[in-house]
Amino acid sequence: MLSPDARIVLTDFDGTFADYSVIPDAHVEAVRAARENGHVVLLCTGRSLAIIPAEAAALFDGVVSSAGARVDLDGETLVDEVYPEELGRRTVSLLLEHGVQFALEAADALYAPASAIALMRKRLAPADGSSRNADSILSAMRESEDLTRVPFAKISIWASPVPVEELAAALGPEVRALPNSVATGDAFMGELQLTAIDKADGLRLVAEHLGADLSRTIAVGDGMNDVGMLAIAGTGVAVEGGPAELMEHADLVIPPPSGDGFAVALDRLGLI
């Protein structure tokens, strides 16, 4: 049970807590200090567990991964949602028919066609001597003999002959399109996520599990998949330059990781 003054903090990873998997020292120290002061701090990311650097996950009390589909807190898995079987088979079949380069994001690995793995290796090859996201992503890639049978939480689209929004529309209201959480690109890149699942669900579940009212929660993010959790959190913190939909729910605006924004937030909110 939380102490009366304790807060629950959920932070996005890419673009909020880290910049291309590089975590500022000030952010590491901020998490440690907040936890030492009795607060609960979780990572809340669109990434699946398979591509979250172990050293990053170890900093936190728990992880909300796959944009809210899975929640792990203090060594216990509270929820682990995946695409319904029929919808999953239909989705994978549609992507294969269109020649889409994609990865099925599961907790243990990223499952993809051989052509998609080759594309990712080429696209993520470091141009400046830095591995950036390449190590965590490429080491998690796996081929499967039958991708239609793989359980997964969401899908990363790395190249598509049609906009990702059109793919989502073809699948129906159960699926929505979002920007990719670990790469930037145009309408022909992105993610396909279950409409019924959101980071907000992870935040709500963590608060309920800890017996805390949502007013005691703090959500920190920079992108469209953070809008839901900022909207319901007691305090919403947005990284400057974020989309207008996110900024509508920001009680505090902070610099990006290059400006130690997460540490700035915890300091201004009195947690460290």
From TrEMBL:
Keyword Hydrolase found: yes
Gene Ontology MF: a single term: hydrolase activity
Pfam families for the chain: Hydrolase_3
Nucleotidyltransferase listed as a keyword: no
Record key words, sorted: Hydrolase
UniProt protein name: HAD family hydrolase
